[in-house]
């Protein structure tokens, strides 16, 4: 019961299939141009959509966003920017990707980038039900709505060109395991771990195929990071002396292998389509095992820390144990990396992203 309680609280954040994309300074030698960056996924990439729905899973308060421009808590699960922001800036679009449900933005803003992601969601609809967040199928419905608005704004021909040449990003999957499968019995009664992995990969395949038929042609999909090494999992791994949970890491590796195989198949099946696996498992695992090599001092605990479980409303600006300098920490809260971690991993991955979409 204690485990369930802890992880339900942890759901006030989930999603570390994350730090996957790219960060770099704008480079005049980069001749790859994208008219827009379009994002689907979970809290690893949510830029504030959960602010506008009825869920406890929010981060629109400090200390979230304290290192964001103006120190603003935007609803991003980070002390600063999330990967799509960095990617958008790296490919010379704009420095932030706005949330689709944020009323302060209009189709004029969304024409060059939009985020449909929702913290706490997953491939599995049952995952989004846990904390009443936006399911993946609904993200796709929002995208269809967005397409109509874009065509009205730009005209059909120009809008279709934007949609086909845009860079699409997907990041999710961690919640399906840590918020759903390993916590509640519903899926375990019907699926072994391996079967559940297949179930999720099949959902991903169907979703991506629908995106393709709606006009997407350039897509980067993030797999899972070493989820057994998240501060939350270390905290509850009492009998393992608070080390990484190897079982969860093995699941992440197996899932990533299946996901990548599926993506390779889609490249063969769908004419004119290019989808890549933004697999960050190895670089994140290396950061966790050799933090000092990357300039970090703390990996076992998060910056927002009492040494137990901190995320969403449990991450308090008033807690005296919350760190002063997030750049010394690999993780911002018990589930999410700091902005610095996102930066390092993104720099590692950007060459593949740019070379794949030449």
Automatic annotation (TrEMBL):
Tree of life domain: Eukaryota
UniProt keyword list: Signal
GO molecular function, one term: hydrolase activity, acting on ester bonds
InterPro entries: GDSL, GDSL_lipolytic_enzyme, SGNH_hydro_sf, SGNH_plant_lipase-like
Signal peptide boundaries: 1-17
Stretches of the chain forming a coiled coil according to its record: none
Gene3D superfamilies xrefs: SGNH hydrolase
Keyword Signal: yes
Family: Belongs to the 'GDSL' lipolytic enzyme family.
Designated name of the protein: GDSL esterase/lipase
